[in-house]
Amino acid sequence: MGRTKQIGNLIPNSQNKGLDPVSTFEKKPFLFLDGNYKLKITNPIEGYLSIPKGDDLIPSISAASILAKTFRDEYMEKMDRKYPGYGFAKHKGYGTEEHRDALRKLGISPIHRLSFCDFLRREGSEPSLFPT
């Protein structure tokens, strides 16, 4: 059975078992994850479902994806004003060549993920580009 069919059967199957899907989800937390992930947390919640391409299949994942992108875009515009020269308002933090060029010129800002900036070390960039 395909993944889309399985997801489509979640609610009808719960109704066949005499369960109201809305009240069932209201009583216990349930988490939909976009992607193919297994949670590694200390106190796992009882229910979650990892759904590859979930933002195409589940409306709540689609909505969360839009909200997250909107929030990130606004945040990156604020960071562009705080750290001018990196072009955050334009590339929104994605690894464009313009973004990499700014890092080569300006070094790593406090908001950069060091894992993203590993390319500088691989290129043999000046140690002064890295935070101490």
From TrEMBL:
Record keywords, A-Z: Cytoplasm, Endonuclease, Hydrolase, Manganese, Metal-binding, Nuclease
Any GO MF annotation of the entry: RNA binding
Cited PROSITE patterns: RNASE_H_2
Top-rank lineage group of the source organism: Bacteria
BP GO terms, sorted: DNA replication, removal of RNA primer; mismatch repair
EC number: 3.1.26.4
Pfam families (UniProt xref): RNase_HII
Domain RNase H type-2 as annotated: residue spans: 1-128
Catalytic activity: Endonucleolytic cleavage to 5'-phosphomonoester
Residue ranges of coiled coil: none
First-level EC class: hydrolase
Similarity section: Belongs to the RNase HII family.
Protein name: Ribonuclease
Lineage, broadest ranks: Bacteria, Pseudomonadati, Spirochaetota, Spirochaetia, Leptospirales
Gene: rnhB
